Amino acid sequence: MPQLTPDQLAHVETWAAGGATLNQIQDRLKNDFGITLTYLEARLLMTEIGVRLKDKERPAEKKPDPEPEPPGRDEDAAAPPSEDPSAAPAGGSLTLRVDQIAVPGTMASGKVTFSDGVTATWYVDQMGRLGLGGAPQGYQPPPADVPAFQRQLDRALMQAGF
């Protein structure tokens, strides 16, 4: 990595204080001083000289008013996932639980009990693929449970920080 002079470092600090992005600083170093840095070298330079880039100010997102739910939507899908692992489905509802410690080789795992009472294990692997296991050979969940499972899984994973 090329060594920058104190004058060049002062320029970098000024550009960063002015709100320049790392890419803009790279371009300015190349155009103004003929110094070409890779992205990693530019990041390391910022760390070495103690310069923090300003975060972009994001406008506050205006959340739209909630739309009325379409008729026939599974009401149980809107409920938060059950935290009680022994909770049996009440009245044919779907329950989903996230394991506190994921199965090795997965990012997240847990159990789901479908509305027909069949319990299965689910997991999301390191590539983000969803898998289902532990159900009887050839088992297909009820068609109405599939979107409810997807909604509850999405909500549970967001709550878990994924």
Structure description:
- The chain has 162 residues and is an alpha+beta fold.
- It has two domains: 6-49; 76-159, no CATH class.
- It contains four helices and four strands; from the N terminus they run αααββββα.
- Strands 1-2-3-4 form a four-stranded antiparallel β-sheet, with helices on one face.
- Strand 3 (119-125) and strand 4 form a beta hairpin.
- The two termini are 36 Å apart.
- The model is unreliable at 72-91 (pLDDT under 50).
* Overall number of structural domains: 2
- Our count of helices gives 4
What's the number of extended β-strand segments?
4
Shape: elongated
Output the radius of gyration.
26 Å
What level of helicity do the residues show?
25-40%
What distance separates the N and C termini? 36 Å
* Low-pLDDT residue intervals, each spanning 5 or more residues: 72-91
**Mean residue pLDDT:** 80
Q: Could you describe the largest sheet, including whether it forms a barrel?
A: 4 strands, antiparallel
Order of helices and strands: HHHEEEEH
Strand percentage lies at 5-15%
Q: Which strand order spans the largest sheet, edge to edge or round the barrel?
A: 1-2-3-4
Structure class: alpha+beta
Short key terms for the protein model shown above:
4 helices; 4 strands; 2 domains; 4-stranded antiparallel sheet
What's the gist of this structure?
This protein is of the alpha+beta class and 162 residues long.
Write the layout of secondary structure elements.
Blueprint: H1 6-17, H2 22-33, H3 39-49, E1 95-98, E2 106-113, E3 119-125, E4 130-133, H4 145-159
